């Protein structure tokens, strides 16, 4: 065998023995959002490990194509070994049990996680996506807000949420990139907001109808997490759809389309945590993200200004 033939043979053997190394992605919190993200990433070819707090949920995680891991963030015995050899990490946690509280999750739990990430021996570049909420804006009188707008520190829950964001963002550097995605109210499969409004037609609801909430479709959350990892987004982004209507405006459109009586808004209870802001999604769009669902009403863009001008 000549030298060139020998070299070609060696190359063929090496290529035939090559192993495709899958990107390894961790998902902390396998609830409504975490489950959907786990499924999407598995189908995209990622090796996904997803955490739950109860071993009884392991079969549900496995059905998503992910490897289950047991984790209670707030526990002193929390096992963070799954963080090793990760390329991407989604943190999507919230109080879900009856005995949960915000401080356990967002102060103690996030604190434990941040410390574990700081001392982790993972040498791979790691991209972290943290799921937060536009609820941190609080009551802005319905005014337009963006990622750099002042946040609401007056409500104790918002203070916890804001501090949790800052702790996670503090991980930026040392081979780690961090992205915070602030979501609106989530709608999607199993969470049909239009149907819920129809059920509320003619009924008294203890919310302020003139407040402007924000909304995000589950599909856009899963796409947003993958987009953040792929494009290595860093910093904070509002991941909300284009709709910027008050509750009253939204409900009136839905009810009028179906010939239903309007929802009767009785105002928010004293001391209630509220969101009342027209949240901009311009920043993430400028980075190239496009929305699967610009509006739960199926329209490209709806704002309170347009509705008022059409009235």
Query: What string, H for helix and E for strand, traces the elements in order?
Result: HEHEHEEHEEHEEHEEHEHEEHH
Rg, please? 22 Å
Q: Into which percentage range does the β-strand content fall?
A: 15-25%
- The DSSP helix count reads 10
Major sheet summary line: 7 strands, parallel
Distance between the termini: 85 Å
Percent of residues in helices comes to: 25-40%
Low-confidence stretches: 10-20
Q: What general form does the structure show?
A: globular
Specify the structural class: alpha/beta
Mean pLDDT: 90
Strands ordered across the widest β-sheet: 3-2-1-4-5-7-11
Number of strands: 13
Task: Give structural attributes.
311 residues; alpha/beta; 13 strands; globular
Question: How would you briefly describe this protein structure?
Answer:
This protein is α/β, with parallel strands linked by helices. The chain has helices at residues 3-16, 32-43, 58-63, 102-119, 156-169, 193-200, 218-230, 247-257, 282-286, 304-310; strands spanning 24-28, 47-52, 67-70, 88-91, 126-133, 139-145, 176-183, 185-187, 204-205, 215-217, 235-239, 264-265, 276-279.
Topology summary:
Elements lengths: L2 H14 L7 E5 L3 H12 L3 E6 L5 H6 L3 E4 L17 E4 L10 H18 L6 E8 L5 E7 L10 H14 L6 E8 L1 E3 L5 H8 L3 E2 L9 E3 H13 L4 E5 L7 H11 L6 E2 L10 E4 L2 H5 L17 H7 L1
Parallel strand pairs: 1-2, 1-4, 2-3, 4-5, 5-7, 6-13, 7-11, 8-10, 9-12
Helix pairs in contact: 2-7, 4-5
Description:
The chain is of the alpha/beta class and 311 residues long. Helix content is 35%, strand content 20%. It is built from ten helices and 13 strands. The strands form four sheets. It has a seven-stranded parallel β-sheet with strand order 3-2-1-4-5-7-11, with helices on both faces. Helix 2 (32-43) packs across helix 7 (218-230) and helix 4 runs parallel beside helix 5 (156-169). The longest helix is centred in the middle third of the chain and has 18 residues, at 102-119. It is globular. 37% of the residues are buried.
């Amino acid at each position: 065998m000549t030298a060139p033939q020998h070299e070609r043979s060696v190359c063929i053997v090496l290529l035939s023995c090559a192993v495709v190394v899958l990107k390894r992605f961790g998902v902390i919190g396998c609830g409504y959002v975490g489950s959907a993200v786990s499924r999407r990433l598995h189908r995209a070819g990622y090796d996904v490990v997803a955490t739950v707090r109860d071993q009884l949920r392991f079969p549900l995680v496995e059905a998503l194509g992910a490897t289950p891991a047991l984790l209670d963030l707030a526990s002193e015995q929390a096992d963070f070994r799954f963080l090793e050899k990760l390329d991407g990490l989604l943190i999507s946690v919230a109080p879900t049990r009856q005995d949960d509280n915000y401080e356990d999750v967002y102060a103690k739990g996030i604190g434990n996680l941040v410390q574990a990430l700081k001392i982790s021996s993972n040498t791979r570049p790691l991209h972290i996506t943290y799921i937060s909420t536009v609820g941190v804006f609080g009551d802005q009188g319905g005014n337009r807000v963006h990622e750099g707008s002042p946040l609401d520190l007056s409500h104790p829950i918002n203070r916890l949420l804001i501090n949790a964001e800052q702790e996670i963002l503090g991980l930026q550097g040392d081979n780690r990139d961090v992205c915070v995605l602030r979501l609106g109210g989530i709608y999607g499969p199993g969470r049909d907001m239009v149907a819920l409004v129809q059920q509320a037609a003619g009924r008294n609801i203890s919310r302020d109808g003139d407040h402007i909430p924000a909304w995000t479709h589950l599909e856009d959350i899963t796409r947003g997490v993958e987009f953040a990892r792929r494009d290595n987004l860093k910093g904070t982004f509002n991941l909300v759809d284009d709709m910027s209507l008050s509750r009253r405006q939204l409900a009136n459109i839905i009810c009028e389309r179906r010939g239903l009586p309007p929802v009767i808004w009785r105002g928010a209870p004293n001391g209630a945590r509220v969101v009342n802001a027209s949240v901009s999604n311009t920043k993430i769009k400028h980075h190239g993200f496009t929305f699967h669902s610009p509006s739960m009403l199926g329209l490209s863009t709806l704002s309170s200004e347009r509705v008022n001008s059409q009235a």
